[in-house]
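Duplicate of #3305? Posting structure anyway:
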């Protein structure tokens, strides 16, 4: 203080010098901040796509790269589209791809395709490649059916005569921008076309009619409106190749015949086992009956003895019965011996 008074400097002057220093520092900060966006400001100004200096500074503060916003605004302006910077900033902060959205809108405008900003950003935020969608809408692309990713080379189907046909198809599609959000992808188109080919071949009377008119498949499948609910519009379905496969009908008949043979063999074996069981039962029944006969024959001597004891049978009657029995046995023996000699 003593030195300040010695130099005739008042406290008011000190405060003024401090304020001037702070103002200088603020001005220096603003100068460097403006220096970073001054080039962009001038570039936008001379490109007839004016962006305010304050807007550029605020982009820096909001961590939005002003270079991306300015360059895309200039591109859109030169193409005849006026897209406000606040919309671009909002889409960038929503983690959208500003460059591809603007490029897609420019391409759509040149191709006379209606693509407003809200729809374009919605498609981009949905995870779809908006630029590729617009390019596909302008320049249709061809999808192989079946796809290479499926691991199959052909779509196999069987006609009514049992002959297998192997077909390859190529589907020409273009993107339907209005159905891109929420629309099914290429996999759905491939699945539906494959199902239509199988159904058409399966309904054919014989495989020759399909080979004679392969376009019958494409016409039938195309008439089903398979692009409903998808993000694409089917322009054409072309059958690239149709080959004759195996005779599935004959194989099924052979398999059925073999199965019938095994079934009949099983039934015959069941009947044979039943017959064997019945034969065993009959043999057991015969053995039982023989035993009963033996038991009955054993009762005859008892009955004779009882008759002799009671006087119902005389002794001479008994001898005559014995002689008759011996005579019968002799005749039986002679008859058996004569047969054996003959």
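Output from current build:
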């Amino acid at each position: 203080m003593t030195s300040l008074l010695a130099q005739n400097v008042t406290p008011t002057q000190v405060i003024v010098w401090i304020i001037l220093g702070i103002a200088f520092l603020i001005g220096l900060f603003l100068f460097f901040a403006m220096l970073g966006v001054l080039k962009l400001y001038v570039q936008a100004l001379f490109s007839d796509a004016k962006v305010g200096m304050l807007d550029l500074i605020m982009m820096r503060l909001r961590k939005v790269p002003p270079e991306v916003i300015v360059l895309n605004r200039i591109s859109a302006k030169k193409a005849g589209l006026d897209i406000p910077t606040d919309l671009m900033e909002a889409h960038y902060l929503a983690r959208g791809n500003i460059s591809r959205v603007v490029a897609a809108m420019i391409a759509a405008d040149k191709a006379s395709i209606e693509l407003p900003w809200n729809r374009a950003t919605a498609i981009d935020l949905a995870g779809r490649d908006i630029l590729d969608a617009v390019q596909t809408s302008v320049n249709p692309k061809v999808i192989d059916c079946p796809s290479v990713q499926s691991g199959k080379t052909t779509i196999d189907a069987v006609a009514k005569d049992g002959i297998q046909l192997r077909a390859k198809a190529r589907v020409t599609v273009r993107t339907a921008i209005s159905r891109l959000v929420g629309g099914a992808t290429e996999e759905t188109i491939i699945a539906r076309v494959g199902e239509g080919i199988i159904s058409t071949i399966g309904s054919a009377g014989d495989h020759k009619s399909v080979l004679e008119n392969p376009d019958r498949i494409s016409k039938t499948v195309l008439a089903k409106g398979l692009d409903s609910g998808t993000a694409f519009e089917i322009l054409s379905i072309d059958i690239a190749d149709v080959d004759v496969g195996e005779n599935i009908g004959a194989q099924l008949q052979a398999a059925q015949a073999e199965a019938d043979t095994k079934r009949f063999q099983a039934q015959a074996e069941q009947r044979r086992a039943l017959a064997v069981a019945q034969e065993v039962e009959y043999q057991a029944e015969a053995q039982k009956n023989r035993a009963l006969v033996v038991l009955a024959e054993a009762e005859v001597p008892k009955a004779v003895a009882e008759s002799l004891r009671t006087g119902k049978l005389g002794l001479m009657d008994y001898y005559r019965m014995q002689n008759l029995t011996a005579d019968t046995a002799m005749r039986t023996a002679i008859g058996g011996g004569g047969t054996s000699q003959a």
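Confirmed duplicate; merging threads. Residues 141-251 form a domain with the Tetrahydropterin Synthase; Chain A fold (CATH 3.30.479.30). Residues 101 and 120 are 6 Å apart (CA to CA).
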